[in-house]
TrEMBL record, chains A, B:
It comes from Bordetella genomosp. 10. Its cofactor is Mg(2+). SUPFAM superfamilies: FAH (SSF56529). One of its GO terms (molecular function) is catalytic activity. Belongs to the FAH family. Residues 1-55 form the Rv2993c-like N-terminal domain. Keywords: Metal-binding. Residues 61-262 form the Fumarylacetoacetase-like C-terminal domain. This is 2-keto-4-pentenoate hydratase.
Length: 268, 268
């Protein structure tokens, strides 16, 4: 089932997709079954007519930095051959100001260098509150999956002490287009295209530590809440993104997150 | 004016304090003047009877890591004499799962070491959305100020790659008791007491970079939203906190944030 978030009657609203690309708006959130009922008097709306929002605004925005060996090789080991693969799951954070819906433009500040890259990522959305969750039961806490683009300015990533600008500049975190509740993690494939040309392709589950292991580990210290998101890292590398490029991140079984790149001119 | 957040009629509710420690509940939030009106039919409630919540749940939780020279000396330079003072404002992040109201217990996990420390911090709460804010106009974007305790497990802080557990374990971010809208930044003093005994005392504004400079710098890349919080760092150091200790962080002109420390027993 596909769950979306969009503007409806002037307010952010959740809805689910039914046949023929129609979307049924609901009142409340999809994370509580009790609330998830059609909005009073609401008729299904064509998907194509919607003003999409990010599918969820998390209370906490978790992100895994190093979870595919080919990405550690190309991004980290290239400048420091001593970088090791992680020995245990550790989690980082991103910031909500940077979230951007499917279809909206990634805006690169004028003072950024040419080294702006995409990172296509599987995103697990938490559906059920929990702490001290076992690895065996971890996936019961997942509501569904969506797609993230962890846009990164690599020069800032090396010089910023905390990756603040490199990862969290406004519009640097596209997420969407929707949450899919039925996914086969083992069968998924991630394909990233720039202007329609395939640039990066990998098996989504080829992670050093998988979704269940991450949820179990971090929940030993953190309570996970409905709507929290866990970005699972990326593989490979990216060409430098240029003004006008369109980045499509497809994860089979979910869909495609598409965003255009706009470089802000100097002197704005 | 003091703004609080608390449970009222079963829901999180904002209110403001009037004379004789009475609190007037409002509907909406204090960040929008339009919404900030007394809740229909609500009578003032005694402060002492309230179930307090953290005064705001931020969309993005910003935190300054190194902003007082005495703290850089005692925490960072002690293990690495080469650590330099920051040359420009850079910002880090904390996680909402860790937020804890005034009066609630800081719970230290059984596997933490003895090296658990307080950090008494001024917290600026954003009241007005903005980007590309000048330093001159930055304080117009502040709604008010509250107090934070950036509880830190120093052993994990050295070994965790991202400070995930060391800073963000559940209950490690007490914040409160309220937001004060009228503060004289230059006159404030921070006093931290453990079990009533003064342990750390410093002039609050003795920062390397002040509130206005930080807001201006980060808003060159980030949109700041009403309710976002900016924890401004701490001075000095802390003794190791023990089971049963009560930590009071007073910032003159705001109030006192008080939390008891509980060490979770092994085998829980």
């Amino acid at each position: 089932m596909r769950w979306l978030r969009f503007m409806y009657d002037g307010s952010p609203t959740y809805g689910y997709m039914v046949e023929q690309d129609l979307v049924v708006p609901i009142s409340g959130t999809p994370f509580s079954r009790q609330d998830a009922r059609p909005a009073p008097g609401a008729a299904p709306v064509p998907y194509a007519s919607l003003e999409l929002l990010v599918p969820v605004v998390p209370q906490t925005f978790y992100a895994v930095g190093r979870n595919y060996r080919s990405h550690i090789d190309s991004v980290y080991r290239a400048s420091d051959p001593e970088v090791k693969d992680p020995e245990r799951p550790e989690i980082g954070y991103r910031a909500n100001n940077a979230l951007l819906p499917h279809g909206a433009a990634i805006r690169i500040p004028a003072d950024a260098t040419e080294k702006v890259h995409y990172e296509g990522e599987l995103v697990a959305v938490i559906g059920k509150k929990g702490k001290h969750i076992s690895e065996q039961r971890a996936l019961e806490h997942v509501f569904g999956y969506t797609i993230g683009n962890d846009v990164s300015e690599r020069t800032w990533q090396k010089t910023d002490r905390t990756m603040w600008r490199s990862k969290n500049t406004d519009t640097f975190k596209p997420m969407g287009p929707w949450m899919e509740t039925h996914c086969d993690l083992e069968a998924m494939h991630t394909n990233v295209r720039v202007n329609g040309e395939l640039k990066t392709s990998f098996q989504t589950c080829d992670m050093i530590f998988g979704v269940a292991r991450y949820i179990s580990t971090i929940s030993q210290y953190f309570t996970l809440y409905p709507g929290d998101v866990l970005w699972m890292g990326t593989a490979g590398t990216s060409p430098d993104l240029r003004d006008g490029d369109v980045v499509d991140i497809e994860i089979t079984g979910i869909g495609t997150l598409s965003n255009k790149v706009v470089r802000e001119p100097h002197g704005e």
